[in-house]
Design goal:
alpha+beta; 35% strand; Pnp Oxidase, Chain A; 2 helices; eight-stranded mixed β-sheet; 8 strands
Length: 133
């Protein structure tokens, strides 16, 4: 991983479509996953992402909320410095806003992806990421 940047309410992520999300195993080893993200329309210090309910990153986040994020390409090439952050799994009631923000950012592609996921029976879980100050 590259050097860590200081949190600036995620302003440095504007214009990017993907981030590398690093979650940590119990032994401290980082696991990187490239994900879509959307900034909260209410508060620029919050990002939203989604995951399948059985993904390993959810288990790691439940165990340790500390994560690191950096802008990336679709294929996972890191495009900037990493930022320390915290991740929180949203309740079903809180997930509607995250879904709306991701749909607004990714448009038709997100809607098609959601439809395919629903048809396949994959439950989605939404997460909120905030800077670790």
């Amino acid at each position: 991983m590259s050097a860590l940047m200081t949190p600036q309410k995620f302003a440095s992520l504007r214009g990017y479509k993907h981030i590398n999300l690093v979650t940590f195993r119990k032994n401290g080893q980082g696991v990187t996953t490239t994900v879509w993200f959307a900034a909260s329309s209410k508060d620029e210090s919050r990002l939203h992402i989604f995951s399948g309910s059985t993904a390993g990153k959810l288990r790691r986040i439940r165990n340790k909320s500390r994560v690191e994020i950096a802008p990336s390409t679709f294929s996972g090439k890191t495009l900037g410095p990493y930022m320390k952050a915290r991740a929180r799994i949203l309740s079903d009631e809180e997930s509607g806003t995250a879904l709306q923000e991701l749909n607004e950012k990714y448009g038709l592609i997100a809607r098609a992806f959601n439809l395919l996921g629903n048809l396949g029976g994959t439950k989605r879980v939404y997460l909120e990421i905030t800077p670790d100050e």
